[in-house]
Amino acid sequence: MIYITGDTHGAFDIHKINPDEFIPGRSLTEKDYVIICGDFGCIWDGGKNDAFWLKWLASLKWNVLFIDGNHENFDVLNAYPVVDFHDGKAHRIRHNIYHLMRGEVFQLDGKSFFAFGGGYSHDYQCRVEKKSWWQDEMPTQIEVDRAHDNLKKVNYKVDYVLSHDLFKSHPLSKKFEIDMKHYDNKYLNIQNVLESLRKQLNYSCWFNGHYHVDQIYYIDDKPCITLFDKVLFLDELASELKTFSQK
After folding, report:
1. What is the pLDDT of residues 146-163, one digit of tens each?
2. What's the confidence (pLDDT) of residue 93?
């Protein structure tokens, strides 16, 4: 079984996948997955707090998968070993915790997932570079090229897309104006990248986090589901679509 949710932000919002609150978690096994759409937050400074939450997550019987958001410590995250994972590349954090790297396509439970994390920190002015904010939140051309290389192998057809931020044509993308002037030249506007990829992709549903709402938006008759509090059961997607407010 596969469940998908939005940002956990470490201790702040991880309660939603705690089996005390997340009832299905009480019966999930090592064959099941919970996917977090960015801002995982349990890899922040490599200290005691990280160790506590990673130990707790490692004690769960099921697998925790996440894409990166904008509030991640990319220096610590990128130091983890890269492994082959369900036909894609991932950082192995613990035996049941994996970071799904940007531009990779994964096969899970007979379904294909294209992962492309990253996002824009509108509050970067209040943060300190390399301590609470990293330019690596934005993608590079190398990551975009990797995405195209992997998507060509599947003829740009996947079942689901996982992102943190959103493509440019989504109304929520207008919430914060992206200023690229504080990024080095190698970094690209994440929303423009996702927009370009969206126009080439053949997919059934797009999932994202970042905007701290649970809602659905349709583009080209395809649903894009923004998640925050909700933990969505993928097998019941058709019925789940009816429970979202529409943008």
Report:
1. 999 999 999 999 999 999
2. 98
Q: Work out the average pLDDT over 220-245.
A: 93
Long-range pairs of 49-52 with CB within 8 A, sequence gap ≥ 24: 49/10, 49/11, 50/10, 50/76
The CA distance from 15 to 143, in Å, is: 32
Sequence-distant (6+) residues with CB within 8 A of 107 are 86, 87, 88, 113
- Chain segment 173-216, per-residue pLDDT in tens: 999 899 999 999 999 999 999 999 999 999 999 999 999 999 99
pTM for this predicted structure: 0.97
Q: What is the DSSP string of the chain?
A: -EEEE---TGGGTGGGGSTTT-GGGGT--TT-EEEEES---SSSSSSHHHHHHHHHHHTSSSEEEEE--SSS-HHHHTTSPEEEETTEEEEEEETTEEEE-TTEEEEETTEEEEEE-----TTGGGS-BTTTB-GGGS-BHHHHHHHHHHHHHTTTB-SEEEESS--TTSGGGGSS---GGGS-TTB--HHHHHHHHHHH-B-SEEEE-SSS--EEEEETTEEEEE-SS-EEEGGGHHHHGGGSEE-
Backbone angles phi, psi at 149, to 5 degrees: -60, -45
On the question of pLDDT at 245 being above 90, the answer is no
